[in-house]
Amino acid sequence: MPFLEHLEELRWRIFYSAIAIAVGTVVGFLVVHYLGVMEILIRPVRPLLVGGELAYFSPATPFFITLKLALVGGIILALPVVVYQIWAFLAPGLSEEERKVIVPSLYFGLVLFCAGVAMAYFFVLPLALVFLSGFQQEFLVATIEVGEYLGFVMKLLLAFGAVFELPVVIMILSAMGLVTPQFLREKRRHAIVLFTVLASLLTPGDIASTFLMIAPMILLYEGSIFLSVAIHRRRWGAESAEPLTASEEPPPGAVEMEGR
Fold first, then answer.
1. Is 93 exposed, middle or buried (0-12, 13-18, 19+ CB in 10 A)?
2. pLDDT for 34-62, tens place per residue?
3. Is 97 within 8 Å of 235 (Cβ atoms)?
4. pLDDT by residue (tens digit) across 121-130?
5. Hey, where are the domains in the chain?
6. To pair with 172 at 20 to 30 A between CA atoms, which of 40, 74, 129, 252?
7. Helix 207-236 × helix 188-202 angle, to 10°
8. What gap in Å lies between CA 51 and CA 43, rounded to an integer?
């Protein structure tokens, strides 16, 4: 299509996505208000609170907290529509081989995201709360403001959900020929350093939660290498998946190895 027609299509795709998010937010508001979402989020911290309840310091806080949770819920509910609109816009520019990899990757990514959020909620969040609340207890009483607490929880849950998407990113990059298994093997040490830095920034700072983020990221990276090998063989043949020698060149568009 001409460039202006592409812009027109993009405008409508964005419009449909915005409508889906708006409808999802309305549904999310009802879910948050009537189905006890707040109770689920507050449950991990209840044993650490005096009276078992969070505090707020403004009459408008309960409403805005509900609205923020509704918006997050709306985005989650609208994700299938948003992903479809992105896919419908980009798919015509992809090869058949790339489509065969990317479509399953999207479903795989949803499962991984849910697994990351579940791990953060059931394991990392309780450990982090116990660790952080264990300081200066003889001088301080835990009166936690609801906005601060929910911000802390959402950051942790979304961070774990996002880092669990690593295999999906590598699968897509491998399908597009931007990385190779050999490149991933060579950069393993660099990746571990990067994972350590990211985990230190994204977790509350205690050793337990940081390690609980680093360990899955390393395992996911190693698993991503095997996925990249499978994709590499399928696209360029079994010979291309073997480690490259000094006399061989990487496939067209692949990331070049150091020293070349």
1. exposed
2. 888 888 999 988 888 877 788 888 889 98
3. yes
4. 999 899 888 8
5. 1-93, 95-260
6. 74
7. 140
8. 13
